[in-house]
Records
---
Amino acid sequence: MDDTTMETRIRQVRTAGWVGLAVNLGLAGIKLAAGLLGHSQAVVADAIHSLSDTVTDVALIFGVRYWSAPADEDHPHGHRRFETLITVFIGLMVAAAAVGIGWDAISSFNQPSHPPSVIALAAALLSIGIKEALYQWTARMGRKTGSTALIANAWHHRTDALSSIPVAIAVSVAMVDHRLAVVDRIGALVVSVFVLHAAFRIIRPALDQLVDAGAPQAHRKELERLALDVDGVRAAHALRTRYIGSELAVDVHVEVDADLSVADGFKIARRVKKDLLQRGPGVADVVVQIEPHEGGE
């Protein structure tokens, strides 16, 4: 990735972070005020969820410059693992928000309930529309830039949209029948389950990357096929992959005719590396080892 492309990627990720921060701060303020004025604990819980999004937005804004830094002597494979760490951080923040929302809902079940008003319902419906639109835009930016942290943050936005659906339902039920005001707290508990599931979806793949999990089988087969398609490669084996951030590092052994010169073998290895880097699924680095082919056709 050249410097111009990298700078563009950094700018796009930071733009998404700033937009998310502004939207989340605005929505958190609206929902908090509506929840307090409209007597809805579910909407207040949803406001806290929106506020938790701002922490991850800030992590994106200030983290992207660091994880996009080029390789150096201390980090020969680059700094992309810092993106994975930020992705885990985002997931843990989502999980913490879920636990807090659930605890508040459970601990207040026996407290007196006030029927919520229409202002609380309006805030929940507004949140659904705005956060789903923010999710769609942020996810597009994440796919465009190839940033796992940005995609994780997009899912954080979507959990806010999804969590507002049971909130809206709970508030509506409580408004129709004031004797069912406790449903509002049940809605807050449902929100916590949604959010906790989203945290799992964010953290699981990031942890796989941190423990050097390999690429999916389909990607490994594609990489092996690309190596075998290079002229002069007679066989390919011992293909290993591991993630560096959202990109793959690949090791592969390729066999060439035993009577080739070292220079010719090196040219084949260079072509294999070039093809895997250019055509492989998210490949960032390739190491090719040449071996003599001793089997028959």
---
Amino acid sequence: MGLLSELPIVQAPMAGGPSTPALAAAVAAAGGYAFVAGGYLSVDGLREAVATTRRLSPAPFGVNLFVPSEPGDPEQVAAYAVELQPDAERLGVDLGEPRWEDDSYDAKLDVVAATHVDLVSFTFGCPSADIIERLHRADVKVAVCVTSVLEAQLAVAAGTDLLVVQGSEAGGHQACFANLAANERPLLSVLGEIRDSGGDVPMIGTGGIMTGRDAAAVLHAGAIAVQIGTALLCAPEAGTSAAHRQALLDERYPDTILTRAYSGRFARGLANQFALDHDGQAPQAYPEVHHLTQPLRRAATRAGDTSVPNLWAGTGWRHVAAEPAATIIHRIAAGIRQTDS
């Protein structure tokens, strides 16, 4: 399989707000490959996002879906809720219901198959071989996000067309599914291990890629393209909250942290007070913890309080710029060419 787009640059699907049809269209117009983030959307919301993106851009694009996780331990979730109660009282809201659900996985699969999108990528797990075959029958390509050789082997065995290889530098949720411990392996190491394992499925590398030099290193390590997310968070076309943008641009926090505090899955974001206070308390329980903390995060975001919400960011976040998506894509592409010349 060759490149998905004119440039070897893919827009990461950033669920929960930052990804918008306008961002997808801008990335596609600049020569990159765009994604609709299907996570957290309703089924109708996903259908509408696909239709709106098609109205804005004639270019092929992908949709990202979450593979359902195993339920967490209710007693551990209840114990975490006790730890969060002072935060809820301070913000004047009730904690959310820590429920398990599958993000309408089957219904969203129906949407992507029926709308014949170009590509579906999967995060938090590997779809079954039957699901991949069904998508192939609908002329839909499949990518699986992986963080290790084992996960890559499982995805290849199931029939994936592409591997999205994620390093520990990536902002937002880690895609681990064979081992749910925090992934500390840097992207270039994981790419090299998968490449050397003998697989021949094309790889897209993601994690901490902010500059052309970053991208060139990943391409030289064997990837056919790079996937960028944090670099686009402050683009005007993104749906990133004002609080999140300001925290990034003002460099309000000194570093990032890998934590389960917000969702019950390890994710990388700016090390604000909530993340530091609750990092060691949150159990492995996604999406129960996500629903539990959601009212806290929403209330704080509305109030412009950056000490509480999840401020997802990769390790290269200090390179974030408030520039149009096309400018960002073109700068990274130019940096790749310069590095290779």
